[in-house]
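TA notes, week 10

Several of you asked for a full example with nothing omitted. So below is the full record: structure tokens for the whole chain, then the designed sequence directly under it. When grading your own attempts, check the secondary structure regions first.
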């Protein structure tokens, strides 16, 4: 199953994908940088910066700064990752930055769109504020 994250609310996207993963499906998420996080953008950035600065650089906890990894981490948070069922489900997930060539002419599932009427920040903008260097978008 291929899911497009364009204009999808990150939490809703994560729960939808987590349910599919727990049912045994393989899920590819494309355009991960276009997902949005609702709420005050300044408070959202502060919350993520606080997560990144927690702990030590050598021992963690480690929190990602790349958009595809932020979305992947949100989906992982919806899975029972401490158990083998959750870990095996997480192995069936692939999250991509942009639209890879292999998915150009394939059928893509969109989440039921909800118009976001409150403040929000895109995952791409969040990652830039967290210090992500987007020169190498392919890794």
């Amino acid at each position: 199953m291929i899911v497009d994250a364009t204009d999808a609310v990150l939490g809703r996207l994560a729960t939808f994908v987590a349910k599919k993963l727990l049912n045994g499906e393989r899920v590819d998420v494309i355009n991960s940088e276009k997902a949005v996080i609702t709420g005050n953008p300044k408070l959202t950035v502060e919350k993520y910066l606080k997560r990144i600065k927690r702990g030590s650089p050598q021992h963690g906890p480690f929190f990602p700064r790349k958009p595809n990894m932020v979305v992947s981490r949100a989906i992982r948070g919806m899975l029972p990752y401490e158990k083998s069922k959750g870990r095996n489900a997480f192995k069936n997930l692939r999250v991509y930055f942009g639209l890879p060539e292999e998915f150009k002419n394939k059928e893509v599932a969109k989440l039921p769109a909800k118009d976001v009427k409150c403040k929000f920040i895109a995952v791409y903008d969040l990652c830039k504020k967290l210090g992500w260097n987007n020169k190498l978008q392919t890794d």
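The chain has five helices and six strands. Use that as a sanity check on your answer.
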